[in-house]
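User: Hey, quick favor. My workstation is busy. Could you predict this chain's structure for me?
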Amino acid sequence: MSKNSSKQGKKRHPLGLVRRLSRTLHPGHAQGYPEEGLDQAATSHASTEETTRLCIDYGPDGIEQKVIDDLETFFNTPRPKFSKVRWIRVVGTPDSAFMNALGSRYHFHPLALEDLIQIPQRPKVDEYAQDSAHSYLSIIASAPWRHDGILTSQQVSIFVGPSLVVSFQEHEDGLTDRIQDRLNMPNSRVRNSGSDFLMYCLLDNIVDRLFPILVELGDELENLDEQVMDDPDAEQMRAIHQHKREMMMLRREVWPMREMLHTLRSSDHQVITSTTQPYLRDVYDHCIHIVDMMETYRDAISSILDIHMNMMSNRMNEVMKVLTIIATIFIPLSFLSGVFGMNFTNSLPGQEDPWSFTIFSITCGVLGLGMLSLFWWRKWL
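Assistant: No problem, here it is.
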């Protein structure tokens, strides 16, 4: 079997670097927005997970949640009188009919829909203002999550209008559970605020979920550092590279989030009220904190890798030192045995003496012990 075929037979790591970096580009990026509709683009990123479409209407006086089954019935049904904000939440890959209907109903720009369909996209925020009635923000965010030691990420897309929030995420992982629990509390701030505050809550959840990931990585790095100092081995080298790949992935996901939040907190878009601006600055500060932690852990991984390499090199040097000492001791012994082992008759002294072997053995032993004593005195042992 060839070397290439043996490599192909090996199990690929779930966080293989090439595989993770290749996810940054979608095949449709080079094609632009599909002119004949969303059918082809939506099918290209089809997911095996069932799509869930929920509508949550809420306000200070009430909340109502329903599943969107029939689009025509849903759009023709008037919003409840208490509804101050409508939140349409989609989990999974939406079908083309739903996307076309949603874009037509709320005047979403085709480029914004393209970013939603062609996953993944770089985190960013775009402002669209056709008129005062159809002014909205299009936000692309990245939501990393770590489960069972495997780091994954999904794209979260958010459309924010004056009284509307439409969110899309690839799969259900409890990202919005805390927000929905707070919506059921009549006196909660999100229940009594506008759509921009719901947008803040979504972004805050995405950013805050990074802290447990970094805390878990920090604990693992601390344990790994102790193991490397005590007894370095090849298994630890694999763990170091595993954490290095995870940190590269986090950096790729979080750095654009930092830029997006900076743009969002500095925006003067009419959707974002002055009441929500301080909360957006707080999310941005959290993101800065996370970036600082990532840089610290990145340096820690490099330090652990250097320590591991130095420890393995020192161990190899110790082995080579012992072997060199053994070889050095046997150099004169080999010389003596070679000289007295030559086949010369009556030419070497002591050949006929019955005690010659005993004398030779004692001489070799004394010489070896003398060299060991010299090495010990020079602190080479």
